[in-house]
Amino acid sequence: MRGLPVRAGKALAATVIAAGSIAGLLALTPLPIADADRSAAPDLSRFTSQQLTWKACDVEEIDKAGAQCADVTVPLDYSDPGGRTMTVAISRYPSPDPGKRHGIMLSNPGGPGGAGLDFPLTFGAAMTPDVRAQYDLIGMDPRGIGRSAPINCEWPEGFGLQSAGVDAASYAESVTRQADLALRCANTEGDRLRHISTRNTARDMDLIRAVLGEQRISFFGTSYGTYLGSVYTQMFPERSDRIVLDSAVDPARYGAVQMVQDMGPANEAVFGSWADWTAARDSEYHFGTTRDQVRDSILGLVRRAAEQPIVIEGLAVDDHWVPMIMFTGIDDPRNYGPVAANMRTLADAAEGKAVQPDPQLVKDLKFILRSEPADNSGQFAVMCGDRAVERDPTWYWRNIEAARAAQPVFGAFANNITPCAFWAPPLEDATVVDNSVPTLIVQSTGDTRTTYANAEGMHRALSASRLVTLENVAIHYIFGRYPNTCTYAAVNDYLRTGVLPAADMTCQAD
User: Fold this and answer.
1) How far is CA 90 from CA 64, 212, 299, in A?
2) Given a cut of 90, is residue 6 above it in pLDDT?
3) Structure pTM?
4) Coiled coil: which residue ranges (predicted)?
5) Does residue 106 contact residue 205 with C-beta atoms inside 8 Å?
6) 3-class DSSP state for residue 177?
7) Could you tell me which of 23, 450, 486, 36 has the C-alpha nearest to residue 249?
8) Which of 75, 76, 237, 396 is the Cys-Cys partner for 417 at CB 3.0 to 4.6 Å?
9) Coil, helix or strand for 251?
């Protein structure tokens, strides 16, 4: 660990003590623990016999597509099906040719915390007409998200992930902030938090299957949705039909620590590609004519924001958030221009110049810094409810410092502490995924969110799976987002026939 300034060292020490107190408070909060043995199937007859009321979704693009929505009543706690309940909102996009219908396909757009009522509009558009005809596509807002009794911790800021900043004083601010976010969730949501988990969402999916009168479900998930899909196949293998996992999480590394750590090297590599692209356009963006010059310019901007936050339309952007603006954009090479323009806006504003920021940048900053229109606390309810993490703030600090040399832009983000360090322990152990349900995994080699190594981990965990690799493309989520003839054909062929490719396959960019 590098030497700490006296001010920073004292701030860090004080914060660690305070954070430890909050962690202890949360650990001792009297929240009910479910029965340790959940192996016995609960009696869910009061739920499986319910009749759904289908109605307009009141979302223009969903209603135009001919879909309808319904609320499904589910147990809050599956170990106590006679206890409290909650509702899960689903959408149904019926097969355009019922005579060719094969079954239902549930879906999840990722996050965790992504609302999914409109998700079938995206991946459904990538299906060929004959494949689309085989399925009623089912969108779902998972429990605690969107219209499904959403978690709302009343965070003052919107985003739970942030960079640790440039030094120990900045990291101390992160520790204090993350502890405060966790405490707000405990105070506002209480014991309900501990039932917002992937295992319970998988149980909800199987309950939805039963309510809809189906024997099996097909599934399309991307990003976190791939973990949800794999947990479903582990818990309900005999009810799993055609499963597609696009941009996969390694189930052994899923959570608020390892999965995020994996993003550091991947984003740093893609930053290099973005820096090359930007350097070739120095006359427009003025960050330098080489990759190293562009990197130095961006790191200088982060340091400047630490000394004096950059103000964009009244929103103060400091060293915790400058890297996150890049992170949210470089998961798609088609966004390199907007990312460069946003960074130029920040640099100009830091120099006191008048700027006209892109409206999307302002919208993103309002979400991050002001929790507008809502916070992202549901994401952490899921992640923290799924897997316990290291609680010692000094452990994260050591990882941050160790990562800075190889990951100067994103290491402080990928290794930073999160609210999960101050969360009450999960009710259940994390799911060990290890099964032979036939599954198609689709992954790009340059994915910055769920890395290619994560997809390989999922491939190993699902022994009967096939892996379709999109080579030399840095894209997160392919089918329905990034047109590619080869990968689209592989997905459609599998969904059409239910037969996986004979072997793993590699695709190239069109």
Assistant:
1) 16, 11, 44
2) no
3) 0.93
4) none
5) yes
6) helix
7) 450
8) 396
9) coil
Assess whether pLDDT exceeds 70 at residue 23.
Answer: no
Per DSSP, the three-state class of 283 is helix
What percent of the chain shows pLDDT beyond 90? 90
Q: What is the pLDDT of residues 57-109, one digit of tens each?
A: 999 999 999 999 999 999 999 999 999 999 999 999 999 999 999 999 999 99
User: Is it true that the peptide bond before 373 is cis, omega within 30 degrees of 0?
Assistant: yes
399 vs 412: CA distance, rounded Å: 9
Q: Token pair for residue 240?
A: 């799993």
- 3-class SS of residue 503: coil
Residue-wise DSSP of 339-374: HHHHHHHHHHHHTT------HHHHHHHHHHHH--S-
* Closest C-alpha to 418, from 305, 266, 258, 268: 258
CA distance 411 to 405: 8
CA distances to 319, 381, 399, 412, 433 from 7, rounded to whole Å, are 18, 34, 21, 20, 46
What are the distances in angstroms from CA 25 to CA 20, 66, 176, 267? 9, 49, 15, 35
Sign of dihedral through CA atoms 360, 366, 368, 374?
negative
Can the peptide bond before residue 112 be classed as cis, meaning omega within 30 degrees of 0? Answer: yes
What are the C-alpha distances in Å from 450 to residues 405, 423, 474?
Answer: 22, 24, 11
pLDDT greater than 70 at residue 3: no
Length of the chain: 510
pLDDT the model gives residue 428: 97
Q: What's the distance, CA 270 to chain centroid?
A: 19
Residue 481: per-residue pLDDT = 97
Residue 37: the pLDDT is 34
Q: Is 294 exposed, middle or buried (0-12, 13-18, 19+ CB in 10 A)?
A: buried
